[in-house]
Amino acid sequence: MDLKPLGCSLSGGLIWFSPIINRILRLTIPFVLAGGLVLMLFWLYDDAALQLGGLLLLYFIPPAGKESIIPAGIALGFPFQVMCLSIVWVDVACCLFMIWNFQLICNVPYLGTIIQYLIKKGEIYLAAHRWLERLYFIGLTFFVFFPLQGTGSVTGSIIGKMLGLKPIEIFGAVTIGSVLSSFLIGYSVYALHEYLDVNIWYVLILIIGVIIIIPIISYFFYKTKTGTALYRRVLEHIYVAKQKFEK
Questions:
Q1: Closest by Cα among 109, 74, 91, 77 to 181
Q2: Range of the domain at 52
Q3: What is the rounded CA–CA span in Å between residue 107 and residue 116?
Q4: What's the structural domain count of the chain?
Q5: Phi, psi of 16, deg, nearest 5
Q6: Does residue 219 belong to any structural domain of this protein?
Q7: Is 44 within a domain?
Q8: Of 110, 93, 181, whose CA–CA distance to 140 is shortest?
Q9: pLDDT by residue (tens digit) across 70-97?
Q10: Tens digit of pLDDT for each residue in 3-13?
Q11: In the chain, which residues have pLDDT < 70?
Q12: Distance CA 152, CA 147 (A)
């Protein structure tokens, strides 16, 4: 029987299975983790777990993110520790799915070709500048840490692959960034309510307002002459940087 190292081992080569079992484990373990989270929530909160489960589903729908889902859960009466750990658990499961099944994702038409090209470029550049590897890890951690649209575990895993980071490094950066970001948001909201007696619903409304307003302002700024000129200038800098990188 053809045996290959289990892809589910982040460092590789610790456990051996056939390729078929290997692939099945890669695909199923992240969903098993998600299912375990659901069972745990129902065990803790019974029917109220449906509310928390709904929030976790919204976490996958833009523009929702940690900055809105965690305050919403706290406002509904869930402890901030539960909200933060749930978000981290989801991020970990998504990260594992991405780094274990990245080859399948790269087979997606058009998207896969672009990702493979960028990964190859990233690996070549990293091989020539090994001293930057630690900076990439820190940078990816901060990328996941900042609660901005598109900075979650899925995007972070893709960027980590593009930078040529090892799976264990991607997993570590995404996990650290998610833990720090989630608990910073959760404890901040909890402190505002507990020590300053601020209504969490007001905080949530303010956050949602910012999430909605910023894209609108950005859109209308882009439509102005100044915004268009700035956008073109950024594209020119990116093009110049790309030409230097290819040389």
A1: 91
A2: 4-198
A3: 9
A4: 1
A5: -120, 130
A6: no
A7: yes
A8: 181
A9: 888 898 889 999 999 999 999 999 999 9
A10: 344 444 554 44
A11: 1-18, 111-112, 114-134, 147-151, 211, 214-215, 217-247
A12: 8
